[in-house]
Write a structure and sequence with these properties.
- By secondary structure, the chain is of the alpha/beta class.
- Helices cover 38% and strands 14% of the residues.
- The chain has helices spanning 22-36, 55-61, 81-88, 102-105, 135-148, 166-175, 187-196, 209-212, 229-242, 259-272, 283-286, 293-307, 324-341, 365-374, 403-413, 420-439, and strands at residues 12-16, 39-43, 70-73, 92-94, 122-127, 152-156, 179-183, 200-204, 218-221, 246-248, 279-281, 311-314, 381-385, 388-393, 396-400.
- An eight-stranded parallel beta sheet has the order 10-9-8-7-6-5-12-11. The chain has a four-stranded parallel beta sheet with strand order 2-1-3-4.
- α5 links the parallel β5 and β6 (152-156).
Length: 472
């Protein structure tokens, strides 16, 4: 990024932005002004997002005070700045695309990494059918969920069964210093759980409110039927009258079963009860939608953050949800930072960019050809570009769409230089390169690809000891 001339006490700068970034820009510019001594003003010419600004729009809407001797536009602004300079008789320039880079723009060094330590959403992770699992398996799964970011472990019971093991399970998890909730409508199971140390009961409606309020635990208040908010209003009134601590869950419904309508219910309940604690069972969407769960979790976390929904209930049973707890842990931090600082959640953290990479670092065809001409040894170099795969050493440059065809061409050129071990290595690396190219990920020979969140998806360099030109 180019550095702008550094302003001084004689400078009076007009910063232009959109409504969404105004508050953050004011905070950033105030700090810069205190350090560098310039005077400033901020203009918002009637657009929400700075990326929508265009010279034609600014010619109609922007007003430049006479005292201003420099105007800085967002880096996204399109059009010929000379038209603005001629119209306003003032120098215009493009600033950075991200306002957090303004210090660098003024020569104050690169921006500091943002802190994503803060969050406001509690993650309740359910162990499905826990009462049918061996105790040691429940404890192991609970500890893994807690390590991934779960704040509370929910004991999922089996509807229609009444297990005598609930108290034992809760006690074992409390022994591990884990917070526990119980998901059951069975009175015996719920009583066992609370007596053993469970702090939250999922769930309470008018069918069980009379006995559930005799237990000393917080409850999740739900309507008798998802679209029956009158029953929820009645339930909340009864819980408040009895002094029972509660959080409200209007129930999110799966896509195709009223999903959008249920989102509206959350908004209605928040309007009716602005100070009530709320919960959303996001697993109703992630587990029942056949799509990688990270993006879905991010959007649902954003809804929760903006509506002040302080907890989510999730499961990670089906394979496409296997890392849901970790995803929500990353998502809740991203949305909290974005909403708190009024910035777009972009270029803050790449933990949820899993199947692709945020940016592709590609070599041009000219650079590839230049590299091929410069290689003077027999070690193979492998590159994955959007135009195809490349295999290069001093004997040749083979490229194309098919790893098999490329390997066969190299083998036909000099079969004696490729033994079985080296063939395995080349096959492995070419396969990785092909996967990276098709997914839109960066490929670097002998290095693991990045897969976002840490965990079972992280690749290991299983054959990295077979370096690119080594044969046994």
């Amino acid at each position: 990024m180019s550095t702008s001339s550094i302003p001084d006490s004689e400078s009076s700068i007009l910063f232009v932005t959109g409504r969404l970034a105004e508050a953050s820009l004011r905070e950033t510019v105030a700090l810069l002004s205190s350090k560098l001594g310039f005077r400033y003003e901020i203009a918002v010419p009637g657009v929400q997002v700075a990326a929508l600004l265009h010279v034609d729009l600014l010619l109609k809407r922007l007003q430049v005070p006479a005292s201003v001797n420099r105007v800085i536009l967002p880096g996204w602004c399109q059009g010929d700045l000379k038209l603005l300079e001629a119209h306003f008789q003032t120098p215009f320039e493009l600033g950075p695309r991200d306002l957090r880079d303004l210090p660098q723009h003024f020569g104050l060094g690169r921006r500091a990494d943002v802190s994503l330590d803060g969050y406001s959403i509690e993650i309740i992770a359910e162990i499905n059918h826990a009462t049918r699992m061996p105790l040691e398996a429940v404890v192991a799964e609970a500890k893994a969920m807690a390590a991934a970011g779960a704040d509370v472990i929910d004991i999922g019971c089996v509807p229609g069964e009444s297990s005598c093991r609930v108290g034992e399970i809760v006690a074992a998890l409390r022994h591990e210093k884990l917070r526990v909730s119980i998901d059951s409508f069975d009175r015996s199971e719920v009583t066992q759980a609370v007596e053993a140390g469970a702090e939250l009961i999922l769930s309470c409606n008018r069918s069980n409110v009379d006995w559930i309020t005799t237990l000393e635990a917080e409850v999740v208040a739900i309507p008798d039927m998802p679209n029956d908010l009158r029953s929820l209003d009645d339930l909340i009134e009864r819980l408040e009258a009895r002094g029972t601590e509660f959080r409200v869950d209007p129930i999110i419904e799966p896509i195709g079963m009223g999903f959008t309508r249920s989102l509206r219910r959350y908004m209605e309940v928040r309007e009716r009860y602005p100070d009530a604690a709320m919960m959303m069972g996001v697993g109703n969407v992630t587990e029942l939608t056949e799509v990688d769960s990270a993006g879905v979790n991010m959007l649902l976390a954003a809804v929760c953050e903006e509506l002040g929904i302080q907890s989510v209930l999730t499961t990670q049973v089906i394979n496409w949800c296997r890392s849901t707890v970790s995803e929500l842990n990353a998502a809740r931090r991203l949305v909290h930072y974005a909403v708190t600082n009024q910035v777009i959640p972009k270029h803050l953290d790449s933990s949820l960019v899993m199947l692709r990479d945020s940016r592709l670092k590609e070599l041009s065809p000219t650079a590839i050809e230049s590299l091929a001409r410069s290689v003077t040894d027999s070690h193979f170099r492998i590159f994955a570009e959007q135009g195809g795969l490349h295999l290069i050493n001093r004997h040749g440059h083979w490229h194309g769409e098919s790893p098999s065809a490329i390997f066969e061409a190299a083998l036909n050129h000099d079969a004696n230089s490729i033994d079985a071990s080296h063939a395995f290595y080349l096959g492995y690396e070419l396969a990785r390169a092909e996967i990276a190219r098709h997914l839109g990920k960066n490929y670097t020979q002998d290095e693991s690809m990045t897969w976002g969140l840490p965990g079972p998806l992280a690749a290991s360099a299983a054959v990295s000891h077979h370096r690119s030109g080594e044969t046994q």
